[in-house]
Design goal:
It is built from seven helices and eight strands, in the order βαβαβαβαββαβαβα. The structure holds D-xylitol-5-phosphate and zinc ion.
């Protein structure tokens, strides 16, 4: 079997957008060339920050048809998964650390007909994925400790991306990386095996579509170059 090469996808995190005009910020970033929209949900318990919930996501749904990539930084996650599915998320990613029954969480997402994602904090070993690898569509490697945008990429996560890549093998699983992604760090993450790149501050800097377009294309170009 040949190795599937999944496309490079740029997934701006709206955590870095202007929350007073989120709908416009979502449609602008898609117009500017973003592939996915990354939605960072925080509960002030699993992570030390609070962001937004399913009602906000539902209200954003009418601004774009782009893939809504929902990153749940909440514990427990299970009681809320259905609400995020109904709000219009296309993929739902849960933290392996967020509950005792990861397999059940993944099955819950699958049963709702959504793309199934699992993510690992920087300190969590890749081995927790070994027994659920055939139950996921996406693996998200956190390259910062979750909770805030604008942090520095943790270089040790490059080895982790390589380990995930090797575990994934020929499976068509998206390998996503989140935290500190800029035009300077995206190349190394691509070379290590990631194909989906979350970027908050590196995309939502400057003002409006033209700035976002330049930011998205700088990221994409650096990733594509690293693939050559
Ligand atoms: C961190 C979030 C990230 C964050 C990325 O908890 O999961 O998605 O918004 O922000 P930057 O790209 O600024 O590091
Ligand atoms: Zn995220």
């Amino acid at each position: 079997m040949t190795h599937p090469t999944l496309p490079i996808r740029i997934a701006p995190s709206i955590l870095a957008a202007d929350f007073s005009r989120l709908g416009q910020e979502v449609s602008d970033v898609v117009e500017a060339g973003a592939d996915w929209v990354h939605l960072d949900v925080m509960d002030g318990h699993f992570v030390p920050n609070i962001s937004f919930g399913p009602d906000v996501i539902k209200s954003l749904r009418k601004y774009t048809t782009a893939f809504f990539d929902c990153h749940l930084m909440i514990a427990p996650a299970d009681p809320y998964i259905e609400a995020f599915a109904k709000a219009g998320c296309d993929g739902i990613t849960v933290h392996a650390e967020a509950g005792a029954h990861l397999h059940r969480s993944l099955q819950t997402i699958r049963a709702l007909g959504k793309k199934v994602g699992v993510t690992l904090n920087p300190a969590t070993p890749v081995s927790v994925l070994e027994n659920v690898i055939d139950d996921v569509d996406l693996i998200l490697v956190m390259s910062v400790n979750p909770g805030f945008g604008g942090q520095k990429f943790i270089p040790a996560m490059l080895d982790k991306i390589r380990a995930v890549k090797s575990l994934v093998g020929d499976r068509p699983i998206e390998i996503e990386v989140d935290g500190g992604i800029t035009a300077d760090t995206i190349g190394a993450a691509t070379a290590a095996g990631a194909n989906v790149f979350v970027a908050g501050s590196a995309v939502y800097k400057g003002d409006g579509i033209d700035a976002y377009r330049a930011n998205v294309s700088a990221l994409r170009q650096a990733a594509e170059t690293a693939r050559l």
